[in-house]
Amino acid sequence: MTSTTTAGPALGEIDLSDHDRFVDGPPWAMFDVLRREAPVFWNPEPAGNKGFWAVTRHADIVGVSRDEATFSSEIGAVNLEELDQRQMEIRKSMLEMDGARHFALRRLLQRDFSARALAPYETFLRGLTATTLDAALAKGEFDFVKQVSADFPIRVLARLLGVPDDDADQLIAWGNRMVGNTDPDYADVLADTPESDQYRDLPFRSPAALEVFAYGDELARQRRGGDGDDLVSKLVNRTPEDGAPLTERDFHNYFLLLVVAGNETTRHTISHTMKALIDHPDQMALLQERPELIPAAVEEFLRWASPVYHFRRTATKDVELRGQQVRAGDKVVIWFPSGNRDEAVFDDPYRFDVQRDAKEHMAFGKGGPHLCLGNQLARMEVRIMFDELLRRVSSVEQTGEVRRVRSNFVNGIKSFPVRVTPR
Ligand code: HEM
What we know:
Largest sheet: 5 strands, mixed
Oligomer: single chain
Helix content: 40-55%
Number of strands: 12
Order of helices and strands: HEEHEHHHHEHHHHHHHHHEEEEHHEEEE
Radius of gyration: 21 Å
Bound molecules: protoporphyrin IX containing FE
Distance between the termini: 26 Å
Strand order of the largest sheet: 1-2-8-5-3
Number of helices: 17
């Protein structure tokens, strides 16, 4: 399917802070207009928030990501919410740090997330995928999110964290409550309502965070001083390279980040990819005929899916960006899906083409110090999932409506009914 750029909304009608504009999927028309007419766009916000600069061109997103001296992750939050200094301190994980401490915390697990360290998990992942798929395919008709996309990444994470498989459903529920904090189906307390004020000190303003901390504490207690090779043991028994041990708060926020980051994003990539393959049967047939194309096609899957909408930086000084005067303290928000449809980088960007060279996609961020730590793991999961799935099915049909998460942060699919004919 090729779609050409249309006139789209007028600039005055654009509002990327409004979650309701995202319920029918990414607001592509808004992104197209912004890239074309206002690549650094001042987006006002509802009272109480200051507004932000929306950066939508691929090259500018890379530029902002790379320049942490000018666009800091530490002096403000990395989402749109505005926190005071105390809340920033309490809530910050490595995502909300710059410089040496960020580097030291990242290095703590960086090698464990390298392609080489993950290679031995290939057999385990294939086994897990087979179990997930065989159970789903036996049903014939099912919800793809529930049976396939949500199940698999969390089981991988459970294995890496060294927690029982039986806890997987609980981990999924925590992730939903936190990342889905603006969706009434998921959140206990909607983060964009005054009621959530009482949870301002918690990540995602979600009471679920307290449960995740308690769960992590118990794992840490069991593993401290041991020689386990799971990620929790490594976190509690290793010292960061800067010599400063992890505080209790560092551990809480690191643990929570791993539970959340590795869960939703991979799930939504798998769902979006399945949807794209159903909508583009020629591309699905091609991969079934030539499965050797799948590893490279994963980059196109990621470009297409763009599961994370944005992250924010905060300007440390006055700076000019594409002719706009950004002031010190302004929120500068980078929109990854827009970069993934930038016609200056991707030829005919709305064409789903599993043979295109999509390496420049920015689903994991691009070029900066916060580039997704789990990118190799996510790639491996998606590759194995579709390698196993496509060899097992002759066709997949969508049988009902796709329901999406109400969020301008995560481009998520909540339910996706399908019928599958096995080979
Ligand atoms: C398709 C799946 C995934 C997507 C699309 C994704 C996307 C992202 C993005 C956009 C960032 C921020 C990049 C930036 O600001 O420059 C990020 C950071 C991060 N991701 Fe992922 N992610 C995925 C899977 C995972 C997995 C499986 C894990 C680990 C289990 C993970 C762990 C992290 C961590 C720890 C960070 C923070 C890195 C830092 O601050 O240095 N992610 N991810």
